[in-house]
Structures are given as structure tokens and as C-alpha cells.
């Protein structure tokens, strides 16, 4: 198969979808890999490194899209890439369709095959291609939150871990999945007082067993959230409903309960955000303030640490990329239920229920497009 890796062009997106090691694995299996010049540069990988393993370098994204049967990306296509995508072309990337009606309609119009990293799902309900970036984003959420608590950037002026004789910050984490777990570990390691909330009692029991003593687990409810935000300095939104919009756990009217300078980090922004006042921001302009509350809603947080993120992502995606390249998307999806659940839009039809429901679009059973 001909595999194409274009350079990511979303604002401050520094990752690349395939490392030279990944390209080597594909070339060794007889596949052709085309990489746009400079695609790996911001992640620390040169064109020469790709050429050394047998990949070919092309000058423009158009050349890559024109020749490739499968496009492997990191972030969803943006407007200037829509017209580059061809009918029947397989595009394997993070799409997060439920957060963008424009993108959904553009991919329907393209007649491409859109296989989304974020909905590839194992039999145990885990999301193998979301996990590595969730791990990065969870840890980064605390790192960024700690920075924006500083007074020069309008935070409360609180050191996350405190010092002897001064209380540590109170950190509230909404969601006990991968993001929330890694955020809790980081915040606890820095010495903060952490409250971790989830709606699953079995999950809270698991977390209570593995977390250090400065992490308290609390059942999530509107009432409990309101009580916790009154004393929180940093609030991290870490909820996920695979392929669907995130629920709004903190509404606009709840901001009045918060201290001025409280920081809210919405890691769920890719899925529409779990705070009512959230809107996507960029690494260039990461925050804004509403009612004296600092909002950090960067939609591609792991893009700020591209080497770590790129290697972690390729470690997870490469086995699936190889399956797709070896077998073609139809056979691969028939043989792998993981990949089957990754199909979101196929030849103009929405085949993932959460996406159809998000934008009130007709839903087609995935079995129909595989027939």
C-alpha cells in the first residue's frame, strides 16, 4: 500500500504521525511511504532519517495526498486540507467529529474513509490510540494548571505543592479515566491536595486503592461538584464519552462559587469541552478569563511536547497502520473489531452513532458499508 504522511499544519501542532522507526517497519513489509518534507522536524526527526529507512520525501501536502492510498495524520484535517482528500482514500487520524459539525460535513462530502483514532476500541472497552495522548494530556494538565495559577498570568498566586507552613493548593479532577488518573498522580506528586471525582463507584474503589494519601475520591454529582469548586484552586476536566460530546459538568452559573484566579483546564475540549464556558484555544493564545476564572482549553495539548507525544503515539498506532496497509481497510476492519469501531464516516455515510446523534445526521450501520 502507498502510505502518506503530511506535515501537520494546525496551530502549533508539532507532532508527526509516523516516526522513522515506524516508516522502517512499513517499508520492510513492502509498503511505500511518502513523507512531506519537514513533517518530522518539530518532533526531532529529519528528512534524512526518513530517507535512510527507505521512505520518499515529497515537497508539498498536495503531492502526498495525491499519491497516497492511506493518509496517516495526528490531528483532524483543517479547512485548507479538505479539498486534498480524495474519494475512497483512507484517512487514519484523530477526528473528534462530535466537536466539529463543519469537519463532519466536509468529510461526508469528501467520500473518503475516515477511521478515527479516538474510537478504536478493544474488547475491554479501552481506547488504545487515545490512551497515550490521554496520558500526556493528563500529566500536562497539571503542569499547565500550576503555571497559570501564577499571579502574573492572572491566577490565584498559589504554589501547587505549597511550602512548609503554607497549605498546598486544592486540585479538583473531574473524571477518573486515563486523563484523570495521570493528572491525579502528577498533582499528588507535587504535593497538592487532590479530589478525584467519577460517577463509577467501582472505578472510585480502584483509584482509592492505588492513589497516595493526598488523593481523596468523591462520587460525582452536581451537588458535590458545587461543594468542591468552592475550595478548589485548579480544576481539571477529564471526562470522556467515546465519539460523543462531553457532558457540561460545570455550568456558567457555577463560576460564581469559585475564587478569583481559579484555573480551569478542560482536557475534554476535543469533544466539545466539559465546562459550559469552554471554547478551543491554542498554544499561541492558551487562556482567556470569564468572571475572573482562568480557562485553559488548548485542543492539542500534547503538541507542546512533540517528541514524547510522537513516539508514544506511533508506539500505539503502528500495529494498526500495519494491519490496514497489509490487508486494506475493508479486510482489516472485518478481521479486527478494534478497527471496525474506529470507522466514523465511510464514502459519505456516518457509521458511528455518536457522530450521527451529535449533528442529527442519518446513521448507517457499519455492516452495510463493509458488505
From TrEMBL:
<feature type="binding site">
    <location>
        <position position="134"/>
    </location>
    <ligand>
        <name>NAD(+)</name>
    </ligand>
</feature>
<feature type="binding site">
    <location>
        <begin position="239"/>
        <end position="240"/>
    </location>
    <ligand>
        <name>NAD(+)</name>
    </ligand>
</feature>
<dbReference type="InterPro" id="IPR036291">
    <property type="entry name" value="NAD(P)-bd_dom_sf"/>
</dbReference>
<comment type="similarity">
    <text>Belongs to the AlaDH/PNT family.</text>
</comment>
<keyword id="KW-0547">Nucleotide-binding</keyword>
<dbReference type="InterPro" id="IPR008143">
    <property type="entry name" value="Ala_DH/PNT_CS2"/>
</dbReference>
<feature type="binding site">
    <location>
        <position position="198"/>
    </location>
    <ligand>
        <name>NAD(+)</name>
    </ligand>
</feature>
<keyword id="KW-0520">NAD</keyword>
<dbReference type="InterPro" id="IPR008141">
    <property type="entry name" value="Ala_DH"/>
</dbReference>
<keyword id="KW-0560">Oxidoreductase</keyword>
<feature type="active site" description="Proton donor/acceptor">
    <location>
        <position position="96"/>
    </location>
</feature>
<feature type="active site" description="Proton donor/acceptor">
    <location>
        <position position="270"/>
    </location>
</feature>
<dbReference type="InterPro" id="IPR008142">
    <property type="entry name" value="AlaDH/PNT_CS1"/>
</dbReference>
<dbReference type="GO" id="GO:0000286">
    <property type="term" value="F:alanine dehydrogenase activity"/>
</dbReference>
<feature type="binding site">
    <location>
        <position position="220"/>
    </location>
    <ligand>
        <name>NAD(+)</name>
    </ligand>
</feature>
<dbReference type="Pfam" id="PF01262">
    <property type="entry name" value="AlaDh_PNT_C"/>
</dbReference>
<protein>
    <recommendedName>
        <fullName>Alanine dehydrogenase</fullName>
        <ecNumber>1.4.1.1</ecNumber>
    </recommendedName>
</protein>
<dbReference type="GO" id="GO:0005886">
    <property type="term" value="C:plasma membrane"/>
</dbReference>
<feature type="binding site">
    <location>
        <position position="203"/>
    </location>
    <ligand>
        <name>NAD(+)</name>
    </ligand>
</feature>
<feature type="binding site">
    <location>
        <begin position="267"/>
        <end position="270"/>
    </location>
    <ligand>
        <name>NAD(+)</name>
    </ligand>
</feature>
<feature type="binding site">
    <location>
        <begin position="298"/>
        <end position="301"/>
    </location>
    <ligand>
        <name>NAD(+)</name>
    </ligand>
</feature>
<dbReference type="GO" id="GO:0000166">
    <property type="term" value="F:nucleotide binding"/>
</dbReference>
<feature type="domain" description="Alanine dehydrogenase/pyridine nucleotide transhydrogenase NAD(H)-binding">
    <location>
        <begin position="149"/>
        <end position="297"/>
    </location>
</feature>
<feature type="binding site">
    <location>
        <position position="15"/>
    </location>
    <ligand>
        <name>substrate</name>
    </ligand>
</feature>
<dbReference type="InterPro" id="IPR007886">
    <property type="entry name" value="AlaDH/PNT_N"/>
</dbReference>
<feature type="binding site">
    <location>
        <position position="279"/>
    </location>
    <ligand>
        <name>NAD(+)</name>
    </ligand>
</feature>
<dbReference type="InterPro" id="IPR007698">
    <property type="entry name" value="AlaDH/PNT_NAD(H)-bd"/>
</dbReference>
<dbReference type="GO" id="GO:0042853">
    <property type="term" value="P:L-alanine catabolic process"/>
</dbReference>
<feature type="domain" description="Alanine dehydrogenase/pyridine nucleotide transhydrogenase N-terminal">
    <location>
        <begin position="4"/>
        <end position="137"/>
    </location>
</feature>
<feature type="binding site">
    <location>
        <position position="75"/>
    </location>
    <ligand>
        <name>substrate</name>
    </ligand>
</feature>
<dbReference type="Pfam" id="PF05222">
    <property type="entry name" value="AlaDh_PNT_N"/>
</dbReference>
Amino acid at each position: 500500500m502507498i502510505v502518506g504522511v503530511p506535515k501537520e499544519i494546525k496551530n502549533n501542532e508539532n507532532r508527526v504521525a509516523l516516526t522513522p522507526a515506524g516508516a522502517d517497519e512499513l517499508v520492510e513489509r513492502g509498503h511505500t511511504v511518502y513523507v512531506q518534507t519537514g513533517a518530522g522536524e518539530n518532533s526531532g526527526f529529519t528528512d534524512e532519517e526518513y530517507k535512510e529507512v527507505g521512505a520518499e520525501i515529497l515537497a508539498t501536502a498536495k503531492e502526498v495526498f495525491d499519491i497516497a492510498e492511506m493518509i496517516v495524520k495526528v490531528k483532524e484535517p483543517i479547512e485548507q486540507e479538505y479539498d486534498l482528500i480524495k474519494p475512497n482514500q483512507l484517512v487514519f487520524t484523530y477526528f473528534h467529529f462530535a466537536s466539529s459539525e463543519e469537519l463532519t460535513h466536509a468529510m461526508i462530502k469528501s467520500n473518503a474513509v475516515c477511521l478515527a483514532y479516538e474510537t478504536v476500541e478493544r474488547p475491554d472497552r479501552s481506547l488504545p490510540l487515545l490512551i497515550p495522548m490521554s496520558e500526556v494530556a493528563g500529566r500536562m494538565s497539571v503542569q499547565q494548571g500550576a503555571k497559570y495559577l501564577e499571579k502574573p498570568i492572572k491566577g490565584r498566586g498559589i504554589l501547587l505543592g505549597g511550602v512548609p507552613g503554607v497549605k498546598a493548593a486544592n486540585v479538583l479532577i473531574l473524571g477518573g479515566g486515563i486523563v484523570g488518573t495521570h493528572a491525579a498522580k502528577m498533582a499528588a506528586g507535587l504535593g497538592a491536595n487532590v479530589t478525584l471525582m467519577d460517577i463509577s463507584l467501582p472505578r472510585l474503589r480502584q483509584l482509592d486503592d492505588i492513589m497516595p494519601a493526598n488523593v481523596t475520591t468523591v462520587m460525582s454529582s452536581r451537588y458535590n461538584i458545587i461543594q468542591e469548586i468552592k475550595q478548589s484552586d485548579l480544576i481539571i476536566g477529564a471526562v470522556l464519552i467515546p465519539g460523543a460530546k462531553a457532558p457540561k459538568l460545570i455550568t456558567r452559573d457555577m463560576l460564581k462559587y469559585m475564587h478569583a484566579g481559579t484555573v480551569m483546564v478542560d482536557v475534554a475540549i476535543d469533544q466539545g469541552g466539559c465546562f459550559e464556558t469552554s471554547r478551543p484555544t491554542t498554544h499561541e493564545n492558551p487562556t482567556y478569563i470569564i468572571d475572573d476564572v482562568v480557562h485553559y482549553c488548548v485542543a492539542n495539548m500534547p503538541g507542546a511536547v512533540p517528541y514524547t507525544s510522537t513516539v508514544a503515539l506511533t508506539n500505539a498506532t503502528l500495529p494498526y497502520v500495519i494491519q490496514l496497509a497489509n490487508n486494506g481497510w475493508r479486510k482489516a476492519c472485518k478481521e479486527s473489531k478494534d478497527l471496525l469501531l474506529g470507522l466514523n464516516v465511510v464514502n459519505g455515510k456516518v457509521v458511528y452513532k455518536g457522530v450521527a446523534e451529535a449533528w442529527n445526521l442519518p446513521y448507517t450501520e457499519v455492516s452495510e458499508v463493509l458488505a
